[in-house]
Amino acid sequence: MPTETGTDSFALQIAKFDKALHDRSAFSCGFAPIDNFLKSSLSDHVKEGMVTAWVATAADDPAVLGFYTLGALAVRATLGPKKWQRARVPDVPVIYIRAVAVREDMQGKRLGTALVVDALKRCLDISDQMGAAAVVLDVLDGDDFARRWKFYADLGFQSLADPDNPRRVYIPMMDVRATLTT
After folding, report:
1. Partners of 71 in the β-ladder
2. Which helix (H) or strand (E) holds 66?
3. Between β-strands 134-138 and 168-172, what pairing exists: parallel, antiparallel or unpaired?
4. Could you identify which of 21, 91, 105, 170 might form a hypothetical disulfide with 134, taking C-beta atoms 3.0 to 4.6 angstroms apart as the criterion?
5. Residue 25 maps to which CATH number?
6. Helices 145-154, 111-129: crossing angle, 10 deg rounding
7. What is the pTM of this model?
8. Neighbouring C-beta atoms of residue 157, cutoff 10 Å
């Protein structure tokens, strides 16, 4: 079911990706690997069950303004908070946001925040159906890394302290629940 939300200047609809309905041709977030993923690989990843994807559009315009993907992941318990280590399991189930991207001309209009909040709401629903201790994502490296890191930190994400992936951040599902259900 699509989510209707608003940003500062336009009505936004976030709906499950449908290759036949969503126009990806003009999408560019300024990071070529993400652009290529959306245009060339996303359909296959969805079809193969590797991710689900959600896209933002304005009104009845099929042009993709932004998107995110969700998938399953397990992280080493030793990387997270002490309570993960006390669970005495080698890996902890989490929900992985593989990508969040906003078309360049829409950046700075709070669309990224709307996408992440929508993703966190969906993650919360998923965690009610299966175990998931946190939501994890990798902050993209590059020219705007510091801005992206601050964006996620401001939303409550913190470093997972993974020596193999220092850009990996997480937010405990308990924090998501506390923030979104109050």
Report:
1. 96
2. strand 66-76
3. antiparallel
4. 170
5. 3.40.630.30
6. 50
7. 0.90
8. 23
Residue 99 structural domain: 3-180
Distance CA 168, CA 157 (A): 10
Structural domains in the chain (count): 1
Per the CB < 8 A criterion, the answer to whether 132 and 122 are in contact is no
pLDDT in tens, 85-122: 888 889 999 999 999 999 999 999 999 999 999 999 99
**What are the residues whose beta carbons fall under 8 Å from the beta carbon of 120, sequence distance 6 or more?**
135, 171, 176, 179, 180
Nearest one of 132, 109, 131 to 58, comparing CA atoms: 109
- 7-45: pLDDT as tens digits: 555 688 999 999 999 999 999 999 999 999 999 999 999
Packed helices 173-180 and 111-129: angle between N→C axes, nearest 10 degrees:
110
